[in-house]
Design brief:
Aspartate Aminotransferase, domain 2; Adenosylmethionine-8-amino-7-oxononanoate aminotransferase; 2 domains; binds pyridoxal-5'-phosphate; Aspartate Aminotransferase, domain 1; cytoplasm; 14 helices; globular; transferase; 7-stranded mixed β-sheet; Aminotrans_3_PPA_site; alpha/beta; 4-stranded mixed β-sheet
């Protein structure tokens, strides 16, 4: 029989025999431990040997209200005994109907129609195809291109990867991809010396205007991650960029796609990041937090105007053609409904504001660290940019993998921190306490101290 302290090793061995993990050079597991998690409890994950890890990154930014959340678990159990799945073409079910009604009420005015898919990348595929097809149905088949921001990330299926600009994910597959038009990001970290984030946003809007002037005739849509470019390094920008972008998209007759897959559902301080720019996009992509981090589900919301361009007698051939077997899965919809019910029943955004303020206070001293170029925060997302040289902001060479050292230290100290390269970030579930935040920051500071010494 396996002794309790051998349980991790046993599961890890079996895992590595057959499983190929995402975003992983599997060879790393010759020295990086595979951590078998057997249980979740609020913001904590518990491995097979009984070690506990505070989930500082909400398990890839999905979890909102804790692991194995009892309310969501009960709703799922009930749904599993009622209806687990049904084909979503020609058939429907109450959880999907209720969820669509609630999403339309919650999201910015004008978004009236909901198309379900299974994950974030699939939602981006839907939005890109729908935008292209809208223009085609309007007699504008010449519009075939998309504008994306430098440093953007919208997923890793071929369409979503096409409009992404993170070299790590894109470079290898570039020969397979569409060629987007890249607009310089309003990322405040890349602002000119002395420039405010708002001034950077204005300057970058000028660049977007110039691109639209040249390319609007062949462009379907501009796609952005509102306020925070997450996988690109938690780079943040001023909300005036969103306001200005909405105006430009209207002026040049291209769609505005807001990819709120990572930033939606309260992450940035408002329910949706677009609210801070006071804008309604033509397409809004939602996933991750939509089910509280329980099950894969995504939704693309769009306008009546877009919907009407597809609505025609069958033989006109205008229908939107996109389907996934698990579209609108009832279990996932039910988890999403319970997640939204928690938002209604509890003062989530108010509590997040207090937690975010505490996180900001705890991170502030890191600004003086000789290897920290920037500490930035937007609501429940905070990031610390580690550099080799504070003055010039020269980054550490990526091959030194300094961030990995922070991750490994975290594992020994009961914290799941998984930096993006040399950017250590915090994106905890909303159910953390101030003491939990203290733990994450303490462990991160220790990890950073180890990571920057040569
Ligand atoms: C902004 C954004 N869009 C799309 C995606 C892709 O979502 P998924 O991983 O569910 O395919 C992600 C994932 O991190 C994301 O951050």
């Amino acid at each position: 029989m396996t002794r309790i302290q051998d349980a991790n090793a046993d599961l890890a061995r079996r895992d590595l025999r057959h499983i190929w993990h995402p975003c992983t050079q599997m060879h790393d597991h010759e020295h990086v431990p595979m951590v078998p998690i057997v249980r979740g409890e609020g913001p904590w994950l518990i491995d097979a040997d009984g070690n506990r890890y505070l989930d500082g990154i909400s398990s890839w930014w999905t979890n909102l209200f804790g692991h194995a959340n009892p309310r969501i678990a009960a709703a799922l159990a009930d749904q599993a005994k009622t209806l687990e799945h049904v084909i979503f073409a020609g058939f429907t079910h109450p959880p999907a109907i209720e969820l669509a009604e609630q999403l339309v009420k919650l999201t910015p005015a004008g978004l009236e129609k909901v198309f379900f898919a299974d994950n974030g990348s699939a939602a981006v595929e839907v939005a890109l195809k729908m935008s292209f097809h809208f223009w085609l149905n309007q007699g504008h088949g010449e519009k075939t291109r998309f504008i994306a921001l430098t440093g953007s990330y919208h997923g890793e299926t071929l369409g979503a990867l096409s409009v992404s600009d993170v070299a790590l994910y894109r470079k290898t597959y570039a020969p397979l991809l569409l060629t987007p038009i890249l607009a310089p990001s309003p990322d405040a970290y890349e602002g000119e010396p002395g420039e405010t984030p708002e001034q950077t946003a204005t300057r970058r809007l000028d660049a977007m205007r110039a691109l639209l002037e040249q390319h609007a005739h062949e462009t379907c849509a501009v796609i952005v991650e509102p306020l925070v470019q997450c996988a690109g390094g938690m780079r943040m920008y001023h909300p005036s960029y969103l306001t200005g972008l909405r105006k430009l998209c209207d002026q040049y007759n291209v769609h505005f796609i807001a990819d709120e897959i990572a930033v939606g559902f309260g992450r940035t301080g408002t329910m949706f990041a677009c609210e801070q720019g006071n804008v309604a996009p033509d397409f809004m992509c939602l996933s991750k937090g939509l089910t509280g981090g329980t099950l894969p589900l995504s939704a693309v919301l769009t306008t009546q105007h877009v919907y009407d361009a597809f609505y025609a007698e069958y033989n006109a051939g205008k229908a939107f053609l996109h389907s996934h077997s698990y579209t609108g899965n009832p279990l996932a919809c039910r988890a999403a409904l319970e997640t939204l019910a928690i938002f209604r029943d509890e003062p989530v955004l108010e509590r997040n504001r207090a937690l975010a303020a505490h996180l900001a206070t705890r991170l502030a001293p890191l600004r003086d660290h000789p290897n920290v170029a920037d500490v930035r925060q937007q609501g429940m997302i905070a990031a610390v940019e580690l550099v080799a040289d504070k003055k010039t902001r020269r980054p550490f060479p990526p091959e030194e993998r300094r961030g990995l050292r922070v991750f490994l230290h975290g594992l020994t100290r009961g914290a799941l921190l998984r930096p993006l390269g040399n950017i250590v970030y915090f994106m905890p579930p909303y159910v953390v306490s101030e003491a939990d935040i203290d733990h994450l920051v303490d462990v991160a500071c220790e990890g950073i101290a180890r990571a920057v010494t040569s």
